[in-house]
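Typical record is below.
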Amino acid sequence: MTDKTNSKTPGLSRRSLLKAGFAAGAVAGTAGAARAAGDPLITEIQDWNRYLGDGVQARPYGTPSEYEANVVRRDVEWLTASTESSVNFTPLHELDGIITPNGLCFERHHGGIADINPADHRLMINGLVDSPLVFTMEDLKRFPRENRVYFLECAANSGMEWRGSQLNGCQYTHGMVHCVMYTGVPLKLILEEAGLKTNAKWVMPEGADASAMTRSIPMEKALDDCLVAFKMNGEALRPEQGYPLRLVVPGWEGNMWVKWLRRIEVGDEPWHQREETSKYTDLLENGKARRFTWVMDPKSVITSPSPQAPISHGKGPMVISGVAWSGNGRIKRVDVSLDGGRNWKTARLDGPSLSKAMHRFYLDIDWDGSDMLIQSRAMDEHGFFQPTKNELRAARGENSIYHNNGIQTWYVKADGMVENVEVS
């Protein structure tokens, strides 16, 4: 489904920089709002009180309410050449907490979705191993398994924002990220089963889809926290997420999380395959490219209010909400600015605080109806922090599309509408 209205707003594309100087709303002590007691929607009987609803057999697999039909993934029609090699975006502005529902996790494909019968699927381990092996899905499920919550972010997330504010909505600027609980087998156990030769230094996972996705991964990472996963959020992987088997590479760019995993080759040096040479390297201002920039650095975005989630209730108590994540570990702190970065207030982190997973933050304010330039700035447990876009460009130039973790600014107008802007 394509949202042609929100995916790109001509009036905002490459807009001029705004000067920060807007009044900030006061931080709320306690937030609360209520309607008059005489509201007929609570004092009078409604249709749903009068009639019996559907029985348990009407919906054998649960689906969202019809009133949530707008909560869907969306693509940007002009962004890629074809739907088979394209992306759609998680509706971050519609979600809360840290877990992304399976049906809303963003998709990025290089050759379309592979349709695989798990009974026919195999995983091969070959190369610099003592015993090349082939596993069925049933074989893999006999290994000890783990459950881990991790975020997955495409290296190109926010890539269209390198040269200026471009896409109007956090679904489009930051929506190539999701966070779920994976169930799978530590890759270390599978490699140990095959036996690693003394000169084994790298692994190369390969996908079974038409693009035959391959990436080089250093052995230290493979033996550390990588999983060969077959479930997400308790159920089987969705087809678009690699059913029946995918690799999980916590904290590292999503292109390395090979889907439809069919083979892992062990070698003594990196392979320099297509997706780590022609793509997924960071082009610098001087024309050179940085390679092997795997880790996704600290990042955050305010999801509400945002261009797709404007303020509709008017002045008074309100909640600013967003998500933060870091490939280095846990998020330690998130600060929020209401005036374009001049002043910062520490937000409240709520919910689980897990390594290499999303963190949810809130700032409760009492909005006086003034214009605001709202930003969030994340810092992880190792002291790495989120830079401004200008700081990022000063270090790397404007040619890149990968690893943009610059601070995002939303311009909140007095009427509650929100736009994607930049400040200087």
Notes: The CA atoms of residues 148 and 181 lie 5 Å apart. The chain is about 10% helix and 30% strand. Residues 108-290 form a domain with the Sulfite Oxidase; Chain A, domain 2 fold (CATH 3.90.420.10).
